[in-house]
Amino acid sequence: VQPPERPLQAEEWNRLRESFQSPEIFEEVMFNSMVRCNSSIDVAKSLLTHVANSNGDIAYNLLVKYLALCVQQGQTSEMCDVYDIMKIRFRILESGAYNLLIRGLSNSDQWRMALTLLEEVKKIMIPSRTNYESCIKAASRHQEMNLAFELYHEMLAKDLVPTLDVLQAFFEFSRGMKGAQLQKELFGILLYLRDNQIYPHKTFMRSIKLWFESIPGGNWRGHLTNIKDSGQCPVCNHQLEDSDLTEEEYNNLRERIIKDVIHGTDTFRKTSPQEFEAFQTFVENRLPFDIVIDGLNVSHIKPRRMHCENV
Question: Which residues form the PRORP domain (predicted)?
């Protein structure tokens, strides 16, 4: 369905609806098409008005689709109007509407309203990573770094894993700012990357480099380089720490996997103790291995072929 290029009158919408092969879903399909084609807000609003006049009401799903178009175009006042309508008509909203509102408002001059909505979400569910990150970026953008880090720690406490995008924002918007606490927080992010062996992409590396070089009173210089196979940095000549597991760490990992993953809470759920012991003996008698292939997964790799042919 191709959306009209101008707002339509009631009779024009009716004619379009009647010519549509499934009139009962016409409005829903039309709004989806408007979002896809990024139609004018006035065109979408004329359809909403027509629906309200015809039915005396606008369904929740149509309001959400209209909201998606408003967010897509950064129409802040319209977002606020839709929220006011939804708040009056529905006691609570579902996560999709909250996600749209928080994302849209956090990118506007009404960004503090996104924080209010985040508090509202907390009362009924655990906010999504996207909810937190939208608010963190908004606070960082407005140089409210204490607030941004407060939200960041709250997010981590809820076991939500941050994206590199939001971690980069911290370095991006802290450039040239003073404060021992701020530096401590940013070094904490670098330690988080190091401890979890997360490697920043090129634009993130550049943000880290520029932040170091902007530290007031500091004398940092950053360079992009290639590390030698020996693990030595050609620029500063320092030896990078080894990321290989020690024997003790490997044994701890091995024991935890056997205990928590293979045995689980019930050894008899997938195997018997005797069968598992026989498997361990089989593996130890044939060490070392270069490659282990999971035959069951390989057998399903091409669904239209016989499993044995895949293997």
Answer: 227-303
Q: Does any domain span residue 218?
A: yes
Q: Is residue 172 part of a domain?
A: yes
In terms of Cβ atoms closer than 10 Å to its own Cβ (0-12, 13-18, 19+), residue 166 is buried
Tally of structural domains, the chain: 3
Question: Average pLDDT for residues 35-60, to the nearest whole number?
Answer: 93
Answer yes or no: are the C-beta atoms of 69 and 39 closer than 8 Å.
Answer: yes
DSSP state of 74: T
**Residue 250 backbone dihedrals phi, psi, to 5 degrees:** -60, -45
Q: Where are the beta strands (DSSP E) in the chain?
A: none
Domain residue limits at 127:
117-223+231-243
End-to-end CA distance of the chain: 46
Find all residues with CB under 8 Å of 201, minimum gap 6, and list them.
Answer: 164
* 153 and 238 belong to one structural domain: yes
The phi, psi pair for 13, rounded to 5°, reads -65, -40
Three-state DSSP class for residue 232: strand
The domain boundary residue, chosen from 91, 126, 161:
91
294: left (phi over 0), alpha (psi -120 to 50) or beta: beta
Assess if residue 106 is contained within a domain.
no
DSSP annotation string for 250-286: HHHHHHHIIIIIIITT-GGGT--HHHHHHHHHHHHHT
Alpha-carbon gap, residue 253 to 143, rounded angstroms: 42
pLDDT single digits (tens) 176-235: 998 999 999 999 999 999 988 899 999 999 999 999 999 988 889 999 899 888 889 999
Beta-ladder partners of 239: 232
Which neighbouring-strand residues pair with 232? 239
pTM: 0.76
Instruction: Give yes or no: residues 239 and 271 share one domain.
Output: no
